[in-house]
Every structure is written in structure tokens, then in C-alpha cells.
Amino acid sequence: MKSFLKFMICALLFLQACKKDVQNSSELSVSGFGAVAFASGDAISVYGSGFDPLADNNTVLFNGVKGEVATATPNRLQVIAPVLVSSGKITVTVHGKSVTCAQSYTIVNVLQGTYNDNFILTADKKYLLRGDVVFNSKLSVEPGTIIYGEKATHGSLTAKDIDFSGSADKPIIFTSDQPAGSRFPGDWKGVIIGAENPNNTGTQVPNGIFQYVRIEYAGYHNATGAGSGLNINLTPGSIYKYIQVSYSSGAGITMTALNGGFINHIIAFGCLADDFRVSGTAIKAQFGLGLKDPYFADSFYKGNGITTVGTTNNQFSNFTLVGYNPDARNILNLGPTVNSDAGSGILLGNAFSPKGEQLYASDFIAIYNSVIAASWQSGVAIVSSQNTNLNNYENEGGYARIFIRNCFFAGTSPAQLPVRGGMFGRIDEKSVKGGFITDGIQPKRVIFGQVNDTTKVLSFSQQKDDLGINGLADYSHLNDPTLLPANGSILLKGAIFPSGSDADSPFFDKNVVYIGAFGTEDWTKNWSSFNPQDNKY
User: Fold this and answer.
1) What pTM was estimated for this model as a whole?
2) How far is the C-alpha of 206 from the C-alpha of 224, rounded, in Å?
3) Which residue spans adopt a coiled-coil conformation according to this UniProt entry (predicted)?
4) Cα angle at 132 between 127 and 138, to 5 degrees?
């Protein structure tokens, strides 16, 4: 009996020792926490190791203010944030040991629901969009204001009477509430700028000013929807300029208009779907950059530079669109996440088809002085039906009036078909080598270059078109692209705005001499960012 009791005592001591060893098996560490932007009372997940599974044995301080630990595991604490007045650091204490997380948190003012009174967002505070947030009256946002979209609720902002007057040194920033290094396309929905149409008169009220604004990691949508980082209804008399949308899981910028609008100096960077999606009437756009990340690409006909759907009389000038083509982007050792079936430079119509069979297009569009480089499916995909009325696109009296003038197509795959779809996709009916005849008066001014200096291996027999944009197209420089063409580039001169043409618009700056989005001055300086993943806000 004494031997049995001795055995039991030893066993209990052994078990207690084992339990103690398990408890201390991991060194205390705090690797980070979920959202970096939150409000008092929010439930925050703190991650790390060495936590006590008993919640009360863990102490969590927010800048020295104690939070309530609701649940605990060895690697995760669920903590209710206390009443806080300042941003700062989180410190966890377990059994006398304390560790402070290197990551900082930001205290925000939560925006949620519908607001019917005039509202001002000031730069001395930070804001969180919780769910769908709607402003029915005027919304003003000060320069330098930072607004987070909440991932958990797929936050969004909708407004129609706006004054978003950012500046080059103090842009307005919309971004994900996730920490640097953990943001992902589609963390939140995005920004919607609507338009007021009183009594359905067809005359829209100008919606105001939208300038020097960045939108990052938006575009959330369900499987059957179409997301967009920025969905904007352009109105005459409003100001839209210096806008960047980065890593949207849908389109970058979706532009619609009932009776026209002018937008300029716009960037779509790393967006999965179309860089610029266009529908509506009389939109004028000048100076635009679309730069794709081949490792984030929608499939098939999605992921284009410009896509038009049901448009009438829209004009674009001075755009540079850089697509997914891995050869032209100098990507070696393609990984499995590179999408090899994505994107045309420009998609005219509602869908993509190499032959355009049983499809339809009614898009009247003019594109001038632009560069379409590194497209994968084609430089231009034209959607149409086999109706014989569509055989002659270049005639103004035809059903689809498409003007593409003074543009360069380079690094396009397949090289022999920089234009695909509709009748232009059939060599026996319309040779693409001659380009478009646009008005019967001006000469053909479209150059379909097969390769350029961005191509890794020059294996084609055609003359090389050296556009001087290697630093822009090279994937290894994605986060610090060289935006300006190289000295001596043929893009630095030769822009045309023919009198009497669609390009001869009072909205366009016709003093520019360069082709593409950039000449000798970088208009993205200070306010834009090509490395949004690492930005700390």
C-alpha cells in the first residue's frame, strides 16, 4: 500500500511538472494583431505565442490602458479595446513577463449607416468605414485625411455631393484596415461617387471636386458581381484629377456619364480586372496609366486596360497601358499564380471572342496618342456580330465608329494579331497590318509594333520598336517604375490633335507633344504610391 501511495505521489508530481512544461513550452511573443485600425469597444485579435489559455492570466495594455481579455489560447487572445484617446502599441503580460508588439494600432472614428446632414472628415482624425456608409448630403474631406475600409464588414463609401480636395503633398487616402504586409485586393468594397438627376430631367447636378485621392485594396464583390475600387458618375462642371486606384479585386476606375464629364491624370495599378471600365456618353479622359501586376490577374476577357460597354462618343488621349505579357514584362521562371489567359490592351464591346461570333458592339470611341504595351490576348479586342453592316468599321456611317489614331502597340501577344475580334480578327477580310483608316482624309497613323525594348528575347522578324519604356514595363521595377520614357524615345514627340476630329476638344490639353501618359515631367510625384503594401498609415 505504501508503495502504491508513493507511486501515486510521484505520478502526480510528474504530471504537474509536465503541465508546467507545457505552459512554458513557448516563449512569450506578440507577432501582431488583426485590423490595425479600430475603435474603443471593438474585439481585437492579438496573435503570438506563450499566452495562457486562462484568459484572466493574461494582461493586455493599449498604450498603458488595460483591455478586457475575453478568450485565450496559447497563440491568440481576443481582447475588447478599452476607451482610448490615442494610437500606440499593445503590450501583453503573462506570468510576470511582458512583450510589446512592434506593430502600432490606430484609433479611429467609426462611420456606419446613412448620414443625412452635411459632414466633414478632418485630417486630425482617422476614420473607419464599417459596412456600407452613405452620405445623402454634402461630404467634405480635408487634405491628408486617412480613411480605412473595414475588411470584416467589406466597408464602402457612397456620396454624390463632394469636396474631396486633396493636394500633392497631402493626398486623401482610402486603404484597407489590415496591417502592412497583410493587405489583399478586395479587403473592402471601395468608393462610389454618384450623381443627382433631379426629377429625371436628364440634367445632372455637378457632384463637386475629387482630386489627389488614393484608393487601395478595394473592389470586393461576390462571385456574380463586378467590383471596382472607384465607381464614379462623371458630371459636367465637376473636377476629377490626380486619382490612383491600386490592387482592386475588380476594376480600377469605373467611369459612367449621362451627358459628359472630363477626368485627367488617373492611375490604375495592379488591379485584377479592367484598369478603366467605361460606359455612358461623352466622357473625355486624358493622361492615364494602367500598370498590371501579372501575379494578380483576372482570367479570359477580363483584366483589360480599357473596356467599353455601351459607350457613345467617348474620347481618350495620352494613355499608357501596360499588360500581363510575361515576355514583355521580363518575367523569368513563371510561377503557378501568373495568369496566362488574361487581358487585352483595349476591349471594345461587351465580351471577348477571337472571332466575334454572335456578339454585339455599339461603342463609339476615339483613342489618340496612346501606348498599348505587353497585352496578352491582343492589343485591341473588338466585339461584334457577323452582320455585314459591321464589315467596314472605319467608315463613319458604320454601326460601330472606332477611331484609334497615332497610337503605338508593342509587346503584344499574339504578335501577328495586335487587333483581334470582330472583322479585324480575320486576316482574309481585313488585314491588321495596315492599321485603321479613321476618316478618309488623314493618313493612317496607327503603328502595330510587334516587339519593343521590354521584350526579353527578340525572336520576331519585324523591326524592333524601341519605345524607351523598359523601366516601366520591367516587372522587377513594379514598385518603383520608371515612368518617363528614355531620352530620345520616339514617344517624346509626335502627338496630334487634328482639327475637326474628336481629339480637337476644348477639354484636352493640346499643348502636349508626347505620346502616352508621360513626357519629361512626372505628374505622379509626392501624392501617388507604387508600394502600397508596405505603407504604414
Assistant:
1) 0.85
2) 32
3) none
4) 65
